[in-house]
Amino acid sequence: MKFCPRCGSIMSIDRVRKVLKCPRCGYEEAASGASLVLSTTIVHTEKEKIAVVEKSAGVPPNATLLRGHVTCPKCGHNEVYAWQMQTRAADEPPTTFYKCAKCGYMWREY
Ligand SMILES: [Zn+2]
Ligand SMILES: [Zn+2]
């Protein structure tokens, strides 16, 4: 978000002309690449989101360590990190991801 240097209003982005424009006084300036990217909502498909999760080896900070509730299908260890992520439409239930605390195997459950 950027404020107009003339009147202090919030500038809006004209994506077609790639300029920031003040809706109040009409001040314009060239939009930098970064501000265009930041304001663009990047919509990932479910597959892309899961690919991102599976590529990142780390466990997110909101993950909880489950002891004895879930068993790793690979090594049979029963300490597993679990976390949820909204991978589909907002009105659908989130996907639960699991990661084995021992061997690092990751899987998901709907
Ligand atoms: Zn202005
Ligand atoms: Zn395991």
What does this structure look like?
It contains 2 helices and 7 strands. It is an alpha+beta fold. The chain has 2 domains: 1-41, no CATH class; 46-109, N-terminal domain of TfIIb. A 4-stranded antiparallel β-sheet has the order 4-5-6-7, with no helix packed on it. It has a 3-stranded antiparallel β-sheet with strand order 1-2-3, with no helix packed on it.
Can you describe this structure in just a few lines?
With 110 residues, the chain is an alpha+beta fold.
What descriptive keywords fit this protein?
single chain, binds zinc ion, 110 residues, 27% strand, N-terminal domain of TfIIb, three-stranded antiparallel β-sheet, four-stranded antiparallel β-sheet, alpha+beta
Roughly how many Å is the radius of gyration?
A: 22 Å
Which structural class best describes the helix and strand composition?
alpha+beta
Q: Output the helix-strand order.
A: EEEHHEEEE
Share of residues in helices: 10-25%
What is the number of helical segments per DSSP (H or I, 4+ residues)? 2
Measure the end-to-end span: 36 Å
Report low-confidence residues grouped into runs of 5 or more. none
**CATH top level of the largest domain?**
Mainly Beta
Number of individual domains: 2
- What ligands does this structure carry? zinc ion
Beta-strand content estimate: 25-35%
Largest sheet: 4 strands, antiparallel
Strand order of the largest sheet: 4-5-6-7
- CATH architecture of the largest domain, please? Single Sheet
Task: Return the average pLDDT rounded to an integer.
Answer: 82
CATH fold topology of the largest domain: N-terminal domain of TfIIb
